[in-house]
């Protein structure tokens, strides 16, 4: 191989999915951006070919024994891939991990912080693991390091505005004049007509929290020694300290409403032992530092002036700076990772790699701009450049013009989607792209149009005094019957306001998000949208047979592959391979079933049709309506039988949208629906949103995309910044008004 070729990853004859024998060279140690309309084949090159081959090569380094435990990676359908270095895929899969995985643990900052406390904390208490809530030595013994515990929901158990006679105690068994109630009144003794809010602190303590004690009471003239304890104390001992699961189901149901999960009373949510919490640096303990926003934490850490700590301080600040650089300064180290959004997860993973010392790695990113406001995209760009400058090859799938601009090399895939895509339509510099006659080139040159004829709302839905997470007493009206876009920098509070506060009060709203659709490997667009039911009926009546035959989940399925169309074969000393089923040839049905035709096509041939082809083929009104909805959301290129598990997050979101399109008078909530969409697809998405609004629906969209924001009837801009510096509505109004709004960062980007 020539010296020149060594500087490129060379791919020849790639044919995965829709790729048409694609050959290309990707410069090493440079940033290459893949763009093109959705479904054109970007992921087929980047993930299904390049990343898949790298994973396969990596797995080959392991012994056969180990390989048996690794996921099976089939060889991609390509003639050759040369010069590939190890690939690291940084995607938007959420970081799972439960309550023991936090921002601090995942970025490796928490272990270093623990080391710091074990070296210079006052008083010195021992090894670094004494500061870990995942370690038996460090965890709070009350809650086992979870930080939360079950407790009585006092708001539901007692009503302070009432007297005992008025039924201030709302727990089961305490109705006025009941046995328990009488015991309480007598044990006090309390004035049964005094409102609890008028009790002295001492009386209230007695009534609710007093420990068990013997009291002499008078029952029908007879003195008896009775054990009494505070009402909440008793409830806690009976139903919370003992496992409530051991009680009868009826009792469990009766007490459940009065039990809620709250911060552990011993560690107050800090998760750590009292010894660990008593250890401080400059007056602050490790839990206090972990609950600070990164932006503030970095200042506190820098102030630690101790020669012993210097190298540790340096290492922590370096990592914290990476978090600030990527726009995550509003997060805290104790934030549980499974509460981070997809975009935030990807950026956290990115930081992990920046701190690492790997070089000559191929980094692959999937739309890293997701969740970032235009203001913060430059930070992402700087990060990608840092990775490149450390000597790595950076490959990015991206639609955002501001990221595409920074590429050393651009690959534009097209010209259209599915079978009408799969080729490379442009390769080269950004300047060259602007002159290229491709969909990307053309759209790059357009300028923003601000909507002027905004619709008048039909009414409003009010949010009052919201304070969840960082929201600072937000009261805002969301207009009905129009398209509202909620925007603002990352961490400003958009999701909190809409997905939590608003949806908490309007659970009947239709939520169109990017979570996976379909429950089984057999789900596909036809089954998901209900088209399959109509198609089965049509086949059955055309051939006068039972419609069950036409389901690959039942009788009609090929017996060899159980309707999957493929068989996995384990070869003793080779990679296990996925082969098309040799009985049905991948068509999933029995021979007999395939002999039944509808207008000359078998059921397998129908499932191989794209939405576009099926629209030409079917006349059935219901089928056409459902197909048209899929076509309208830009899924023309998808085949009816393509497994849903192969759809991207953005495609899943659009297929959900397609199956909800016919509703009227509903509230639709969408979270970044432009994810995965090329600039030229966004026009279609806007057309659908407008159609929904014209049909009498209310549409609320969380978005950073300027094309969408500029076409809103109403904009709610959150800010001014992320985290504690955000949480306010900085602007409400029309697109034409926002560009004059002094405090709106978003407005500056629409000019
Ligand atoms: P992009 O990343 O540009 O949006 P993809 O590479 O995901 O496009 O898809 C290109 C084409 O290949 C589309 O028609 C898509 O439906 C199809 N495709 C993708 N993955 C699979 C798969 N696992 N099986 C069958 N078809 C697929
Ligand atoms: P946006 O949607 O504008 O990016 P979010 O609503 O996700 O903003 O976040 C607003 C603030 O609330 C941020 O400081 C964020 O860290 C915090 N936050 C969001 N979700 C949670 C959660 N589950 N637990 C704790 N804090 C959260
Ligand atoms: Zn605790
Ligand atoms: Zn088969």
From TrEMBL:
Subcellular location, record wording: Cytoplasm
UniProt cross-references to InterPro entries, sorted A to Z: AAA+_ATPase, ABC_transporter-like_ATP-bd, ABC_transporter-like_CS, P-loop_NTPase
Pfam families from the UniProt entry: ABC_tran
Chain ranges of the ABC transporter domain: 4-440, 448-751
Protein keywords: ATP-binding, Cytoplasm, DNA damage, DNA excision, DNA repair, DNA-binding, Excision nuclease, Nucleotide-binding, Repeat
One GO molecular-function entry: ATP binding
Superkingdom of the source species: Bacteria
Main location: cytoplasm
PROSITE patterns attached to this UniProt entry: ABC_TRANSPORTER_1, ABC_TRANSPORTER_2
PANTHER family tied to this protein: UVRABC SYSTEM PROTEIN A
Family of this protein: Belongs to the ABC transporter superfamily. UvrA family.
Name of the protein in its database record: UvrABC system protein A
Species, as recorded: Cohnella boryungensis
């Amino acid at each position: 191989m020539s010296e020149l070729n060594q500087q490129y990853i060379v791919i020849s004859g790639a044919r995965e999915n829709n790729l048409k024998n694609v050959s290309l060279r990707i410069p090493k140690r440079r940033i290459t951006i893949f763009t093109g309309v959705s479904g054109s084949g970007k992921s087929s090159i980047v993930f299904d070919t390049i990343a898949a081959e790298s994973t396969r090569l990596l797995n080959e380094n392991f012994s056969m024994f180990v390989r048996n435990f690794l996921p099976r990676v089939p060889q991609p359908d390509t003639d050759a891939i040369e010069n590939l270095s190890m690939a690291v895929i940084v995607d938007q899969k959420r970081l799972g991990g439960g309550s023991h995985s936090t921002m601090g643990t995942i970025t490796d900052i928490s272990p270093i912080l623990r080391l710091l406390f074990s070296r210079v904390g006052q008083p010195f208490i021992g090894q670094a693991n004494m500061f870990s809530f995942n370690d038996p030595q460090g965890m709070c013994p009350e809650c086992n390091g979870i930080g939360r515990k079950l407790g009585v929901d006092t708001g539901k158990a007692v009503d302070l505005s009432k007297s005992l006679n008025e039924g201030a105690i709302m727990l089961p068994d305490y109705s006025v004049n009941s046995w328990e109630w009488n015991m309480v009144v007598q044990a006090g003794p309390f004035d049964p007509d005094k409102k609890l809010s008028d009790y002295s602190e001492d009386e209230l303590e007695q009534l609710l929290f007093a420990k068990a004690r013997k009291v002499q009471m008078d029952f029908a003239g007879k003195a008896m020694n009775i054990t009494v304890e505070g009402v909440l104390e008793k409830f806690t001992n009976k139903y919370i300290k003992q496992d409530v699961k051991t009680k009868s189901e009826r009792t469990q149901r009766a007490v459940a409403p009065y039990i809620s999960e709250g911060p552990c009373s011993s560690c107050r949510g800090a998760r750590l032992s009292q010894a660990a919490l008593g250890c401080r640096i400059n007056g602050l303990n490790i839990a206090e530092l972990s609950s600070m926003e990164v932006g503030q934490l970095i200042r506190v850490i820098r102030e630690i002036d101790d020669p012993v700590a210097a190298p540790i301080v340096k290492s922590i600040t370096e990592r914290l700076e990476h978090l600030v650089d990527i726009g995550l300064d509003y997060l805290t180290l104790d934030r549980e990772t499974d509460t981070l959004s997809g975009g935030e997860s990807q950026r956290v993973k990115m930081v992990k790699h920046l701190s690492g010392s790997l070089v000559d790695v191929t980094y692959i990113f999937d739309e890293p701009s997701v969740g970032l406001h235009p203001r913060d995209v430059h930070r992402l760009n700087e990060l990608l450049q840092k990775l490149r400058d450390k000597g790595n090859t950076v490959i990015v799938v991206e639609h955002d013009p501001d990221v595409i601009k920074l590429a050393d090399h651009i690959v534009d895939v097209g010209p259209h989607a599915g079978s009408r895509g799969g080729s490379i339509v442009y390769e080269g510099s950004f300047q060259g792209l602007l002159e290229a006659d491709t969909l990307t080139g053309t759209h790059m040159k357009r300028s923003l149009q601000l909507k002027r004829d905004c619709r008048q709302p039909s009414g409003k839905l009010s949010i009052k005094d919201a304070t969840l997470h960082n929201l600072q007493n937000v009261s805002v009206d969301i207009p009905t019957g129009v398209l509202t876009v909620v925007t603002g920098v990352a961490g400003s509070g958009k999701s909190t306001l809409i997905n939590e506060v608003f949806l908490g009060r309007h659970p009947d709203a239709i939520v169109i998000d990017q979570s996976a659709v379909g429950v089984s490997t057999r789900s596909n667009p036809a089954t998901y949208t209900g088209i399959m039911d109509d198609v089965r009926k049509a086949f059955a009546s055309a051939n006068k047979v039972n419609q069950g035959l036409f389901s690959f989940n039942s009788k009609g399925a090929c017996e060899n592959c159980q309707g999957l169309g493929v068989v996995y074969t384990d070869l003793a000393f080779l990679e296990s391979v996925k082969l098309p089923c040799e009985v049905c040839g991948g068509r999933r049905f029995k021979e007999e079933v395939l002999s039944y035709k509808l207008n000359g096509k078998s059921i397998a041939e129908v499932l191989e049709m794209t939405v576009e082809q099926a629209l030409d083929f079917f006349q059935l009104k219901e089928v056409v309506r459902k197909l048209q909805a899929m076509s309208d959301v830009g899924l023309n290129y998808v085949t009816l039988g393509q497994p849903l598990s192969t759809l991207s997050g953005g495609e899943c979101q659009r297929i959900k949208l397609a199956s909800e399109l016919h509703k009227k008078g509903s509230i639709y909530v969408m979270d970044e629906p432009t994810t995965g969409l090329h600039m030229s697809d966004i026009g279609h998405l806007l057309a659908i949103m407008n159609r929904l609004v014209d049909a009498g629906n209310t549409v609320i969209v969380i978005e950073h995309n300027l094309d969408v924001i500029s076409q809103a009837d109403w904009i709610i801009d959150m800010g001014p910044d992320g985290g504690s510096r955000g949480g306010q509505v900085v602007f409400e109004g029309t697109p034409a008004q926002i560009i004059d709004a002094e405090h709106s960062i978003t407005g500056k980007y629409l000019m």
